Amino acid sequence: MSVQPGHLACSKDSIVHDSRHLFELAGNRQQQHEIEPSFYYFAYGSCMCPVDLKRSLGEKTHAYVVGSAKLKGYRLGFYRRSDLRDCGVLDIVKDPTASVEGVLYRLPCRLSDRLDEREEVPKGGYRHELVDVYCHRRLYTNVRTYVVVNKLLEELAPNDWYFNVVLRGAVTCGLPEQYCWKLFEHMHQLQQRHWQTESLRSA
């Protein structure tokens, strides 16, 4: 199930009103989080890093982290070129044999538009997709994530900055060590292939 960019950024399906579920990382504003209209968001790329997400949302995001989470039926791929970062950036594509690890956030609805701007939804970069993820042995439904609208035919390597921020987010938020190594190898191999191609062109 997907939500097109023209729909309301914080739909009724994705708003969370159940105050029984507390944050894994509690902050001074925990009580406010429980009563403030919010939505669950699954991050699998650079937004896994709360420090980098803060840069876009304008406030600290550590307290919004629920924990590491798993999305089944999708796989990672670098199927978009970011003009801002001048490199390949992450996307997810449906694959019944695969799964994606990431970070589950519970964000206030007032931050929804800023998150959309980061993912370039108004420009047609990414679009909303509602998914089900597992976190702390619990199933969360109607969780928002983002998928690329116009996908590249082949993966494009990330630059060193994107490589580092994605890996830092994965490690900081406690993704499984085996998955972190798999992510590292995936990005490293793409970079190696890119450098080899560039060397052949310049030869």
- Main beta sheet strand tally, sense and closure: 7 strands, antiparallel
Distance N to C terminus: 48 Å
- Helix count, per DSSP? 5
Percent helix: 25-40%
CATH 4th-level superfamily: Gamma-glutamyl cyclotransferase-like
What number is the mean pLDDT?
A: 87
CATH class: Alpha Beta
Low-confidence stretches: 1-9, 17-29
SSE arrangement, N to C: EEHEHEEHEEHH
Helices and strands, with pairings:
Layout lengths: L1 E2 L11 E2 L13 H6 L2 E6 L6 H8 L7 E18 L4 E22 L3 H7 L7 E10 L2 E11 L11 H13 L4 H26 L1
Antiparallel strand pairs: 1-6, 2-3, 3-5, 4-5, 4-6, 6-7
Helix pairs in contact: 4-5
Verbal overview:
This protein is of the alpha+beta class and 203 residues long. The chain has a single domain, classed as Gamma-glutamyl cyclotransferase-like (Hypothetical upf0131 protein ytfp), CATH 3.10.490. The protein has 5 helices and 7 strands. Strands 1, 2, 3, 4, 5, 6 and 7 form a 7-stranded antiparallel β-sheet that branches. Helix 4 runs antiparallel to helix 5. The longest helix is centred in the C-terminal third of the chain and has 26 residues. It is globular, with a radius of gyration of 17 Å. The N terminus is likely disordered.
